[in-house]
Amino acid sequence: MASSLLLFFLFCSVILLPFVVAQTKTNIAIGDSHTAGKSTTPWLVSSPSGDFAFGFLPLEATPDHFILCIWYANIQDRTIVWFANRDNKPAPKGSKVELSADDGLVLTAPNGDKLWNTGGFTARVSSGVFNDTGNLVLLDGASSSTWESFDDYRDTLLPSQTMERGQKLSSKLRRNDFNIGRFELFFQNDGNLVMHSINLPSEYVNANYYASGTIESNTSSAGTQLVFDRSGDVYILRDNKEKYNLSDGGSISTTQFYLRATLDFDGVFTLYQHPKGSSGSVGWTPVWSHPDNICKDYLSAASSGVCGYNSICSLGDYKRPICKCPKWYSLVDPNDPNGSCKPDFVQSCSEDELSQREDLYDFEVLIDTDWPLSDYVLQKPFTEEQCRQSCMEDCLCSVAIFRLGDSCWKKKLPLSNGRVDATLNGAKAFMKVRKDNSSLVVPPIIVKKNSRNTLIVLLSGSACLNLILVGAICLSSFYVFWCKKKLRRVGKSGTNVETNLRCFTYEELEEATNGFEKVLGKGAFGIVYEGVINMGSLTLVAVKRLNTFLLEEVQKEFKNELNVIGLTHHKNLVRLLGFCETQDERLLVYEYMSNGTLASLVFNVEKPSWKLRLQIATGVARGLLYLHEECSTQIIHCDIKPQNILLDDYYNARISDFGLAKILNMNQSRTNTAIRGTKGYVALEWFKNMPITAKVDVYSYGVLLLEIVSCRKSVEFEADEEKAILTEWAFDCYTEGVLHDLVENDKEALDDMKTLEKLVMIALWCVQEDPGLRPTMRNVTQMLEGVVEVQIPPCPSSQLSIQCSLD
Which of 155, 370, 639, 732 is an active site residue? Predict the structure, then answer.
């Protein structure tokens, strides 16, 4: 018996020893490394107690991508308290972190690209140690600290961590998005601890919505350090050694609870506790938070507010803001619940509406709701009825607030700083909406296999009503089945298209377009017509009728558009609303873009404003970044040109026409395919039988950017020979220092020469003949937004390079 136990013990020791060693490894030696997704354990090193770990964790949305981070290791949700590589794309599977004597911790991608490093040392690193406080420290040969994670602030403080003047925490962009967010907790140089938001992607700081007030005065001294001590207290230590407590109530035992103080993505700074040794069902519980009511305390004239534009902020549990769109409004980005809202109807100042406003519009009444600082006129004294009538008759008025018994504040879109505020004492907000929205189509009722309960409820009413409802269910079920069958038939071979697209009949679209009467545009594959469809309200649409005499090519474009659009949703992409397929017809229904194409805007006698052109250039870049890196599957558009960039009511750029787009599989970064695109915008690799990557879109964007800057076409044979090819002429203007020739008499552009030069430099990087020299669209957006400095571009092509050397 004893010998059996001994053998068992030895067996367990041999089997478990490597895991014990891995879990208790607290030091890192030079050359030690760890690879994402290729290890039995996700950590490189853990703290002596095992409370913290440092290594790679997979991202929830994209498990094949990882974040290098420090997290609480002994709780189920593995809460991240520090992370590397902020504002860069996550590390793909196979990325490696290694400790180097010269650069400290170095994170490299599988292809060898350096993603991040601690760097900036005055002495060589000799080792690393991970403390029980959760602090990862790199040491030099004299065992002095050269870098600490506690000094590299993210969004969280841990017990025993301090923050000096001039340091700040930055929130995440969203709950599971580790990019820099809108909110900052900043310990100012005057000793005041403040919270404010910034207007991304710039660094413009809005007014403080929280301030500790710990500045020098006649009665107190200034704050000198923000301290999170081992007792769980968070306080500001003043010059005179007095404490200004942020904590509410007594201390919390760090022997019984894990603690963290986090500036959350929604702007609230909160102390959380989590019982040690608890079951998986117990999570983090807020202990206290600041400010008391962020919805009321936040007020900024230069931003949307806590929530996005046209949204309403109300206070939820634990002082957390809840953002909601008003009725008949919906999120611009469904993936961002705290983002901006857009009206689901068109409010117009057209002449045909002026005489029948009361027939078209009504009011949604909200109590104790306001959007401060969005007013454009105050009417006083006014009665409630006068306030309603004044807004009804004013085509610019979207909301009227009646309060104080005689005051009427009229507001127009976009609305900012929206909040529910009980101190308004019953004030009424009259939100103008279209009446036809009150008859929105009810979504089809899908009868599941187990539908006995549904039928029992139906049978409990009147017989006549039951028959109507059962008939409606059958019809809607048939409709849903028919649509799904249709989607399966037009999807890629062996796959289904997962979309919310509506299946139209040919007769519906013929009626909607008044017999295909008004032409909006023509292309190689079809004609686009204006139409009006009842989709809950009368909605303007653009109906693309494909030329079926090119049946094989048209069928490819039709399938491609449906498959691609089923994977996308972004504010800089045109939305596909539905389709129709018959034996002889293929039609696609898009949202209507009231301001036409970018081509019609920039290739015009009168140039659009410089500011608008910059806005459009950035919008197109963000749309391409989404397709290349942020969509569930990488998409190469393959035909970026001004005719395929549409402009909505607010001149926001929307990429359209995905008929030539190429979808890459998860394990693909390149493909081989026949030449696609339009002359003047096509990268040279199409003609060299080279693998095609997303860099072909980057090339096309570079040409497009030069067109936006100069307001002239990429190829103009009527022009002088040296100006015929825009990319070559732009490079000549840049190298010769005569960029003013590129914009001619455009005063706005000439007054902003620094931006003009930056845009031309970005464009010249994009049109490099060598795809490897072109930036990614993420790099392009960062350069446009000023996050990354633009380096001097080389000659774009080998032919030009020869000419440059001769010159």
Answer: 639
